[in-house]
Structure formats: structure tokens, C-alpha cells
TrEMBL record:
GO terms for cellular component: cytosol; trans-Golgi network. It is an enzyme of class 3 (hydrolase). The keyword Transmembrane helix does not apply. CDD domains: nit, TBC1D23_C-like. Residues 315-424 form the Rhodanese domain. It comes from Etheostoma spectabile. InterPro entries: C-N_Hydrolase (IPR003010), C-N_Hydrolase_sf (IPR036526), Nit1/2_C-N_Hydrolase (IPR045254), Rab-GAP-TBC_dom (IPR000195), Rab-GAP_TBC_sf (IPR035969), Rhodanese-like_dom (IPR001763), Rhodanese-like_dom_sf (IPR036873), TBC1D23 (IPR039755). This is TBC1 domain family member 23. SUPFAM superfamilies: Carbon-nitrogen hydrolase (SSF56317), Rhodanese/Cell cycle control phosphatase (SSF52821), Ypt/Rab-GAP domain of gyp1p (SSF47923). Residues 720-949 form the CN hydrolase domain.
Amino acid sequence: MADTPDEALLGSWDQDLAEALDSGGSDMEMERGIIQIALNVSGKGDSLSPWDGVLDLPEQTLIHNRSQQLIDQLKVSEEERRDMVSDVESVITFYCKSRNISFTPELSWPHLLKPLLGLQLPRSDLYNCFYAVMNKYIPRECVPNGRPFHLYRLLLQYHEPELCSFLDTKKITPDSYAINWMGSLFSSHCPPDVTQAVWDCYLRQADPFLIFFLMLIILVNAKEAILSDDGGSKEDIINMLEASPSHLESEDIEDLFSLAQYYQSKTPLSLRKMNQNLFGSSLVALKEEDTDLSQALCLPVSVPEILQANQLQQDGVRFFVVDCRPAEQYNAGHLSTAFHLDSDLMLQTPSEFALSVKSLLEAQKQSLESGSIASGEHLCFMGSGREEEDMYMNMVLAHFLQKNKEYVSIAKGGFMALQKHLVDMNIEGLDSSYIHWIVSTSGSHSSLSSADGESLSSPGDGKGVKSLVNKMTFALKSKSVNVKEKMISFIENTATPVDRHVSSSDRVGKPYRGVKPVFSIGDEEEYDTDEIDSSSMSDDDRKEIVNIQTWTNKPDVKHHIPCNEVKETGHMFPSHLLITATHMYCLREIASRKGFAYIQSRQALNSVVKITSKKKHPELITFKFGSNNSTGVEISAVERYLIPNAGDATKVIKQQIMKVLDALESSAPFSRSPSGVPPAGSTAAVLTVKLCVSVFGTWRAHGWLRGLWDRLLWLWLLEFRLAVVQLQVSRVKADNLSRVRGLVKEAAGQGSKVVLLPECFNSPYGSSFFPEYAERIPGESTQALSEAARDSKVYLVGGSIPEEDGGKLYNSCTVFGPDGELILKHRKIHLFDIDIPGKIRFRESETLSPGNSLSMFQTPFCKVGVGICYDMRFAELAQLYSREGCQLLVYPGAFNMTTGPAHWELLQRGRAVDNQVYVATASPARDETSSYVAWGHSTVVNPWYNTKL
């Protein structure tokens, strides 16, 4: 039934999930179970039970009429209609009463009930699903002139400034046409089958911010019709826009989401991080200064993201920073990668300002070609951070926006925020790396850098970005009629776009994104920022001549791939790629000697850092090779090949790369805390392990918006540190929480980005202890976890705690992000029950209730699936996580002295090898005096079954 492998995977997801959860039954029953699982309400109690059912609101007649109108849009029998009207009216009434909301005719959220009514849910489940959608996916202030629509306008301006300007001129605000899109998740305008397809993809992505990008794609698709209707009235354009989603068809939805994810990858993460409080329940308060987006001139970007984006050599958002402060402030100190554009020139000498802007754009182009760490397609303007001083910068910003320049943003807080951030990070003084970020071009700061911007403490930087930026700055400050000529002269003298060798000052490294794997779309007109011709081979390599047949028949050659080597000039040479267990060889055929070839290159497979293809030429594959150093990954060579059946070829290369990395990993020493490997009975210990994950795949567009891109191939190798914490749990909850905070801080100090705690870390394990230590979420323990994650800036998988909810007890794991936000809550699905007469009897089900939902979260490094203890025994759960893209499975657990030695490590290896993922477990430390003695032995297993602890 599915047309593509992606569709086949998505089509099998529902069936696999239903089988794994033993739901069985009809298709309708399975659909009901799936949406309840996706919304995390499966098994939830009756929220309507406290209500007396009285329909007595002042707006009751309006609610009743609205309920009838909703049902009239569905094709149902008269008997079903009567029951549905009653259900809808009850749900709306109870929601308004419980939330103290006055019902008005213009509200769009009642449309959310239409897709749910088709599932024939009981009234209590209907309300639970409706409330979950409202809470997680409908943003706060989804009202006229609400904050979400100001944010959406900034997003539209960032990607489509011309379209945004046109709508602004017509005084058409986003809430005038998109309030029903956002408030109903498109169910107000889309046919039922399209709404169902949208919701299926949306709930699986579990990313509430996707609504902004889906709305953006719909508007972009209508751009031509909008701009061509310049003479149309405001009302006509609004009506046309509002009806745009009604043109969607079911087969368009996959492309709609793929394009939304592409635009998301080209958007600063600050949009998401600064607006987390729009959705769901937040543990982090919203700052007053962040609330009013209506006054924002353009999209604000945080200083940490600016530094991080340009520190890492990545395909995604990279910023070309433009410092608009007066010359004297810039001279006293500025970001080392910032270009200076004196905003005072705009009023004082407009002609010189025009030349400066032209030079700025030329400098941006040249920096992209040369691969400078200052390069970036996205312009980010930086002021002082003081409102009265930044008025001229705002005029400069307005100038660029009027020219419909895309990817324009502003550094939030300006240079003051930059300084504060660096101080907060303890990066100050000559003895630190502060000199790398803040440099000076004046005598008052000569101890940091020389007059031409070359660092005195780092001579090598003189040939890098600091020299280039500061030379351009002095050219501008001369304020002569030769500004442009001087600028271009400096650029030409420093930029070397061909055969560029990366220096130690170039900061290249791992890619970073918040929701889905990073990918780049290559094109003939685009520039790679770290491209180097294949210049790493020795003279002997170039001269060595071999017999092609002899080499291809060598026993250690695992794969032979005929191809054409493609040089920077465009010349192609018939060649052969040979893949051995550890290396990739390129043999270039010798035209004058048939059957013979030069050994053009030999590269170690573990030095591959990236594999990409061009969107218009998917057979053109680029390999980038490099090595790790203190500043990241240094690119040493770039090779390009035109390969028939490129997908198959890159797949076998990728598989061999992973084997090499796994083998190296299993033999390398691990980073350990001072307490070393946690013994089974140690009172507390932290051990960190470096993990290496890959993201690999191909994608082909079809259907709606065909032609925006054709095919995409990517391979990323990402390294990060995972810490597992093993501690002896006491009966004093406060003591357990205090020790956990200290251990999380210790793990973060060792470079860990993800930290895993053990099962029941805050209380002794056992049925008698669960009721005593149970707490609601959020509560004392989760508050401590939130603070620990925020203070240490890690992803914290909080083991598990006994949770009380609705009169039931659960064994629940909470996960918090580096900002202290609650990402997810997982309830143990499989409860451990055993009853052997005369030997042992232990039944968790007599005290605990089971969960029934998958729990996954996305990090910048990989996607993580969560289970608890006995969940690990069930292979289906791990298979579902693997099929959903998880590369790390975490299981806080507490196996005992019988099951531990028999199955603890065995199950982990099985899950890891079966699904080719990492598996990490964290156990309480062994306490022989406890009523329940845990096995301990917290463990990490890689996809090659090697045990880490």
C-alpha cells in the first residue's frame, strides 16, 4: 500500500504499536488506542467524575448551537448525532467551567473535537484527549493579537521578508487569517481525511512548535497568488489565505512536514528556546521582557547560540555578525568574528553608508567562499544593548528589511549580553580563552590584541578571521571614497577559497539541532564552508602504480565501487573505490596503461566526519575527512565521486565505518570519575562514557511542492558523553535528593551531556515503600531534578520515583532538559509479577498501575527511548523505539541478586545487538542490609555488544 520506504515505515508503526501493547480488536479500536498513547492519556481516569453534569453556563445556548453545528459537519446517523451533540456540549461546558473560560462564537478550539469524534471514544476519553491536545499543542494566548502570532510574523519575516512586507503594507496580521489554523490544528478548514493525516504526523513528531513551520509552508506555497493580487482588497486576501489549508490533500501531508522540518533546520534555535512557555506546563517562569514580541523589529537570537553556531562547522544556522555600535565602542572591544558597520554613517554620510553596506555583503560572500569561521548566510546585527544607543542600529535593521533581505536577526541584549554571558561562563582575563572571543583594535586594549586585530598571545590567528575582520573594519573607518576598493583588496588578500588548509584557529566540529537530524541541501550555487581539495596524500601515494584487477581481488577488499573522481575544476577521472576493513582507497585509472591505476588516496575510515550529496545530483557524493583536536574536528581532506547507485554504495561504507568506530571504542580506555568504576556496593559513583552515533538516510520528495528538492543524503558522526549514576539509596528522601544533585554536577564537570539516574533513586525499592514515598508530579523530587538539570545544563533522565495520580501509584521516570524544562514522563509499562509456591512471591501489580505509552525525547546528539527495569525484557518495546529513530535506549532498573547475574547484562546486549543501538542502565548500589538487595553493575552496551561498565 505504501509508495515509499518512509511510507511503509510509517504505515507499520500503528500496527507494531498495537501488537506490542496487545490491544488487538478492530481498526477503530486500534486507532483509539494509538491516539490515546500518542497523547499520553491511555489508562487515565475519568476527569469528568467530579462534575455534576449540569449544563447551566450563561452561554449554554450558544454552546449547544455550536455543538450542533460541529456535528452537522460530520456524516452520522440521527441517533449518533444526538449522542455526539450531548458529548460535545458536555466536554465544552466542563472545560469552560474548570478553566473559568467564557465561551464566545469566535473560539476555534471546539473544532479539535471533530477528529476525535470519529474515533467513537467514551465521553471521559474524549475529554482526556481533547484536554491533552489543548495543553500540549495549542499555544497560550491563541487569541487576536496574541503572542504566538507575533512570533509567527517574525518567523515569516525571517524566511520570506518580501511576503511579510506585502502583508504588512496591506495591514494583514497573522491572527486575521491563521487564528483558526493554530487554534484547531487545521481541523477547522481541512477535510476529515486530511486532518487525520496531519494529526497522525503531528502527534508522532510530538513537537508543538511544528505548527509555526506548517503554517509557514502553507503561506509560502500561496506566495505567488498573494503577491499577484496586489490590487485585491484586504478582505479578499484574508479570505483567500484563511481558506488555503482546504486545498491540501492527504498525499500532500508527507511533503508538507518534510518541508516544515527543512525550514525548521534553517531557523535559529532561539525561536524555540525563548518561547518554550507558549506550550504545556512549564517549571520555568517567563521573564517579563520576553513576553512582548509585538515590538520586536526582527527575530531575536541569544548570544550563546551565536557563539555556539559559529564555533561549530555545521550545515544549518551560521551567523555573519554585524556590530553596529559606534567606532569607539567597537575599537574598545568586540566579538572577534564581527564585521563593523557604523550605524552613525546612515544619517551623517549616507553615501559612505551605502558603500559600507555593499562592502558588507561582498565580505559575507567572500567569507562563505573562504570557509572562515566568521562566515554565515544568516545576518545577525549586534548593538550595545542600551535602548537609547541602539536607535541607529534599528534604522540599519529597517534598511535591510526594506530591501527584503532574508535571514536577518538581532543579538538579544547586544554586546552587554555578550560580556555578561562570557563572565557567567568564567571566560575572562588574559589567562583564559576570553581573548578568543573579545578583541580590540585600539591602544586602550592593546594587551589583548594588536592594532590590526592580530592576537599577541595567539600569532597563528593573524591569518584567520580576526585579521580579516579588523582589516575590513579599518578600511571602513577611513571614511574615504575608496572604502569599497580597500575592502575588496583586503578580502582578496586573505581569502583562499581553493586548496584551503584548515588551521588550528578554525573551529569546526559536530552539528547541533533541537528536534530531528541535521541535514544540508547542496546545490551548484552553494559554497561548502570547509572544503579542501584532496591534498593530504604523500608524493609516494601519487606515484604508486598498481594493477586494478589484482587490487580489487585482494582478500581484504570488502567492497569495490566503480566511480568517477570529480575535481574542483569539474574534471572527472575514471576511478575505483576499494573498501577494506579499515581504509578507503581511490585508484585512478591511467589512460595510457589499460588495467593500471595510481593510488590517488588512502583514507582511514575512522577519519570520515561527513558524507553528503547534492540535491540536484544525488550521485555526486562528497567525503570529508578529519581528526579530533582540542577545538573540535579539523578537516584534512575533501574528496568527491560520481557514483552510480550512490545510495547502496554509501550504505556499505557507512556500515563499515560504524564497525571501525565500534572496534576502536571497545578497545579505548573510558573516562572515569575519581571514584572509578562503580562497584556493585559502592555508596555512590559516576562513570562517563563517550558514545558515537550516526544519522544516515535518503529522502525523495513527491506529490505536493514537487521540485523544491529531489533527494537528500546525509551522514553525521556525533560524539557526546553519557554518565550513569549508581548510588546507595537511604530512607531519607532529602538526603537522596541532595546526593543526586552533587553527582549530577560531578558528571557535568566531566563533560557529560546526558545523565542517567537509577530506578527509585529517591526511596527504597519495594511495595511497602511505594505508598509512603509516592508524590505527585511536579513535586519535591521533580523540582530537585529540574534544578539539577538546569544548574548543570544537562539532559537528566531522572531514574524513577513512585508517583501518585488519581488514586493510583505508578513507577515513573521524568526527563528534564538543560533549561530545567520537563520533557517527558514515562510510566513503567511492564510490572514484575512472580509467584513460585514455597519460594518467592512478589507482585508489583498489587501496588502499582502500569503505563502504556512510548516515551522518546530528542537531544542535539541523538533520539533517546526510555524504559524502566522490567521493560527491558520485552524486545518489542526496543524494536518500536529503534524504528522511531532512537539510537540510545535508557533503562533505570533494580534487578535483584537472582535476576541480576542471570539476565541483567544479557538483556542489555540482546536489545543493543538486535536493534543496533546503545543501551544504558543505572541501578541502585548494592546494600546487603536492605530489605531488597539490588544487583548494581550499572552498564552501557554499544551496538557491537561490548560492555562499558
